[in-house]
TrEMBL record:
A divalent metal cation 1 binds at residues 63, 100, 236, 240. This is Nif3-like dinuclear metal center hexameric protein. Keywords: Metal-binding. InterPro entries: DUF34/NIF3, DUF34/NIF3_sf. It comes from Vecturithrix granuli. Pfam families: DUF34_NIF3.
Amino acid sequence: MLRTDLEHFLKELYHYERFEDYCQNGLQVEGKEEIRKIVFGVSFNLPFLQKAIEAQADAIIVHHGIFGKNFFTVKGVLKERVKPLLQYNISLFGIHLPMDAQEQHGNNAQLLSYLDAEVLEPYDLGFIGQNTQEHSLSRILDIFHEKLHPAGYQIPPVERSLASILTPKQQHGFVLFDHGPQIPRKIAIISGGAAGKYRSEDLLSKGVDTYISGSVDEATPAWSYETKTNFINLGHYWSEKSGPLALQQEIARLFDVKTEFIEVENVI
């Protein structure tokens, strides 16, 4: 396929113009016009780029690309990341907030779909859904483990050395504060660094009893205890893997081009 066709397809799918973002969404570094292979991932960095070069990629699509909007200073770490792109003539596409909010192929829509939950309404960059399958908290974490972690992925069990009501549980490396119902009824999901949005009277008024995100902060445990709600931290990386995976599947379905997802595991 042609780079210009890919650029147009992504712009139409994600509607960049609707978002005030921290970066320029879409094509960030221009490579060759003819694209035979696209690799997908969560974040653009040197370990990812080295794997992309080994995979003989013509284009890269990631959720976390190059951040910054009004600059023409390419030095230091950024220079070392960009130099191989230019050397190998690889295009880089970064799609940030639009990939969180996209109604079908976005990170948050996909996470809800893993649970076969009914989408009730959009909320911020995410969604609120009904746990129609009546999955327990433990089963929800099992599902995310099966969908997001690569085969054979194991996290050693963590001993709870602190006898505190605010100490979290862990399952498959995911962090859980389970002060709400063991079978959630209404779930809110906002991927990435959205822990602060959990502490919302608005969510409580909507009947949300379980919040899923990709980060956690100091105030989270007490809010979970005081509001009798659940909080799940999948980790920033894992919570934002589902969108790139869904996009890979959609592009492979629509276009005659090779695709590959490149995993660079990050427990954060």
